[in-house]
Amino acid sequence: MIKIGIIGCGKIAMVRHIPEYAENPNCELVAFYNRTHSKAVKCAEEYGGKAYETIEDLLNSDVDAVSVCVANADHASVTIQALKAGKHVLCEKPMATNLEDSIEMVKTAKEMGKFLMIGQNQRLAKAHVKAREIIARGEMGRVISFQTNFCHPGPEGWTGKKDSWFYDRKVAAFGVMADLGVHKTDLIHYLTGEKIVNTIAQLETIDKKLPDGRPIEVDDNAFAIYTLESGAVGTLHVSWTNYGEENNSTIIYMEGGTIRCYDDEEYSLLVEKKDGSVEKFALDLLTSNKEQTSGGRTSTGVIDAFVDSILTNTPPSISGESVLDTMKVIFANEESAKKLSNVKII
Ligand SMILES: NC(=O)c1ccc[n+]([C@@H]2O[C@H](COP(=O)([O-])OP(=O)(O)OC[C@H]3O[C@@H](n4cnc5c(N)ncnc54)[C@H](O)[C@@H]3O)[C@@H](O)[C@H]2O)c1
User: Fold this and answer.
1) Which of 16, 41, 57, 69 to mutate to test the pocket of ligand 1 (most atoms within 8 A of CB)?
2) Do the domains 2-120 and 122-298+318-344 sit in the same CATH topology, yes or no?
3) Would the CA dihedral through 165, 167, 172, 178 be positive or negative?
């Protein structure tokens, strides 16, 4: 039985990590730590295990692995501390707030012989897995273009607070580009099997205000035009100001037709062929903020994959190393937006 500790007992821990560990028969939730101790106590009362007063005490215990669910600014330091204490780590996205820290996390995992997995759950959504398979088979030819979107009403719909840390540059590092853009940038790498080699990005704060009426400190809308290794060019739009229905869609335009992921209410995957035929797949729901905040329970598969990887001593497919290319693009987007010009990613 794998012993699990949770570091950061906030929203994502409560709606995803903790319940998904609790349902996995191969692990046991034994330890909780949160900066505000009462939150850790609440978790221990509900799920069993012990609430620790310090992170050191938790890491000195016999836990095998931890989930790092703290705010963005502390992902790297907490992950590195846990790896150095000999624990496997599942760290939430965005992996870190700069490239040096991201690389250091990967290096530390290697040195310690421990697994580092990142919570890029979009790679496990069934329509994405199937779309990747279809693209890799090659029968639809090459990717010409794409359009990926992740647009919802913003973190206050998730946290219930109007002045959430997601709006504080020191803690969040940057806004919707790091929060949602990291998912869809990673997804483009995953679906196409290609690297993004050039970006032109624009990061804007258009609408979101703090409770005192000042604009938030980070981007609430972010746009990028990505070029892939093959020369395919596509767009990313991520937004915290979509006050209508969530848009979590990705459309891949190929020589042989169009693949639509989560673009249709009934069919999570549509494959529209050039000859006019359409293959329709009703595979799953994408785990959405709306669904999770209303108590819905679509499993992301992230926790099961992490536990499996430890159990079978197999490196996780969503390894820290596999997310480095995505982080490079995210930081290049910030640079591009500042310079008002394109940035090549090497
Ligand atoms: N994979 C996804 O789709 C997804 C979805 C939502 C959130 N997230 C990520 O999960 C992380 C947490 O987000 P959240 O929505 O749960 O935020 P949250 O504010 O609800 O929870 C964070 C918790 O961590 C605690 N904390 C902060 N820094 C700490 C530290 N250094 N040590 C111990 N405890 C600390 C806070 O007290 C809080 O309880 C973020 O990085 C976010 O980007 C990922």
Assistant:
1) 69
2) no
3) positive
Residue-range domain boundaries for the chain: 2-120, 122-298+318-344
Beta strand pairing status for 278-281 and 343-344? unpaired
Ligand 1 centroid to Cα of residue 66, in Å, is 14
- The residue written with tokens 């990613």 in the block is 345
- The answer, yes or no, to whether any atom of ligand 1 lies below 6 A from the CB of 8, is yes
93 backbone dihedrals φ, ψ, rounded to 5°: -80, 160
Say whether pLDDT at 129 is over 70.
yes
Expressed in angstroms and rounded, the spacing between residue 208 Cα and the centre of ligand 1 is 20
Q: Which fold has domain 2-120?
A: Rossmann fold (3.40.50)
CA of 36 to the centre of ligand 1 (A): 12
What is the band of 295 on the pLDDT scale with cuts at 50, 70, 90?
low
Where does 122-298+318-344 sit in CATH, by number? 3.30.360.10
Give the tens place of pLDDT for each residue, 134-167.
999 999 999 999 999 999 999 988 877 778 899 9
